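[step 3/7] fold_predict: job queued, chain A
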Amino acid sequence: MNLRSQHIPLNHHLHRINKAKHPHCPHCPNIKESVHHLLIECPKYQRERHILHSALGRDASSIPYLLTKPEAIPHLIKLINSTRRFKTTFGEVSLSTK
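[step 4/7] structure written:
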């Protein structure tokens, strides 16, 4: 899974490669389902983001921080798993040791 490149099974990317009918979030009509929307904006995952903010503070609102800082990655993985948004494609996401 590559969140940085946005080549992940969210509707925005899937629509670009003709694998989804529209680019919109399944929970937010007319809002593009992107990495930013999933991690920062989508009201469906407000509770999950609250847990992330409790662990990381204001840095939890920074996509670059979440995607690049080693201390953020385990918390980001917890958020991703708790949304269950990638479960069908990837199963439980885990920290790669490669």
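[step 5/7] annotate
The radius of gyration is 13 Å.
The first helix runs from residue 11 to 16.
exit 0
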